[in-house]
Amino acid sequence: MSEKWCIVADSACDLSIEEGKKLGIAYEKIPFMLLVGKNEYIDDGSIDIDVMLDDMEAQSEAARSSCASPGTWAEVFEKYDNTIAVTISSELSGSYNSALTAKQMMLEDHPEKKICVIDSKSTGPALVNLVYKAAKYIRHEMSFDEVCDMLQKNVEHMHTVFALCSFNNLVKNGRMNKIAGFLAGKLGFWGVGIAKNGKVCIKGKARGLKAAVAEIMKDFKENNFNGGKVFISHCNNLAAAERIKKEILSLHPDSKVKIMQTGGLDSFYAERNGLIITYI
C-alpha cells in the first residue's frame, strides 16, 4: 500500500527527511531557495542555520526567499500513484500555486494519478501536523478522497501562534520602522502574533521571555485548548521551547508536545531565537 503513496511538503515543513522516514509512507521535501546578499542557500536540510543567520544580520539589504518551480513538484508527482502535497500558506508564498500548476500539468499527461494539494494557511509546525495526520490516515487505509477531506478539516481547526525577538529582516523589508525595530531588540521586546486566514497578524508585544510565554498561553486559553497535540518549532532556542512545553504540560498534562528545530525557511522568517507553535 505505502509504496503507492507519497506525502510531499515544501521546506516550510520542519519535519526532517530523517524523521519522515519513520512515517511508514514515502516522504519528500521540496526546497525553497533563500537569497542573502550574493549568497544562495538551498533549503534541503544542509543549511548551517547559524551561518545563514549571521549572514542575514550582516547584510544591509533584506534577504529574500524563492519557491520551487512547478517542474520540481511535477518530478515528485510523477513517481507515485497517490500524492498528498502540503505547502506554506498561499498568502505568504507562491509555493501553493506552483504545486497546483504542477498538478494540472501532471494530470493532463497522467489522468490516472491522484494528487491533492493542501494549503496549510500557516507554516512550520502546522505542516508537520498535517504530514503526521496524512500518514495516519493512509495507514488506516482511508480512501484518497477521505484523506484529502480530513486534512482540509484539520487546516480549519489548527491554531498557530509565534513569538519573535529579532526584527532585522522585518526592518529591512520595510515592514517595521527602523527605530522601532532597534528599540524593540535592545529593550528585550518580543512580538507575539498569530496566523489568521493564512496571513501573519501581530497581536502585541511582550517584554522578556516570561511575558512572551504568558501571551502564548493566553492564546491557548482564548482558543479553548484543553489538552491535545502541540508542535513547537524554535530557531536555535531549545530552552524557550522546553519552557513552553513545561507550561503546557503543567496545565494540560495529557498533551503531546513535539519540539523541532526550524529549517532554513522558518529560521529565515522567525529569525534568531524565534518560536512558532501550532496546536489543535
Shape: globular
Total discrete domains: 2
What fold name goes in the CATH topology slot of the largest domain? Rossmann fold
Q: With helices defined by DSSP (H or I, 4 residues minimum), what is the helix count?
A: 11
Cα-atom radius of gyration:
19 Å
- The neighbouring-strand order within the major sheet is 10-9-8-13-11-12
Write down the secondary-structure element order.
EHEEEHEHEHEHHEHHEEHEHEHE
* Low-pLDDT sequence parts: 175-184
Helix content: 40-55%
Query: What structural class do the secondary elements suggest?
Result: alpha/beta
> How many strand units?
13
Q: What name goes with the CATH superfamily of the largest domain?
A: Dihydroxyacetone kinase, domain 1
- How far apart are the first and last residues' alpha carbons, in Å? 28 Å
CATH top-level class of the largest domain: Alpha Beta
Mean pLDDT, nearest integer?
91
Strand content: 25-35%
Major beta sheet summary? 6 strands, mixed
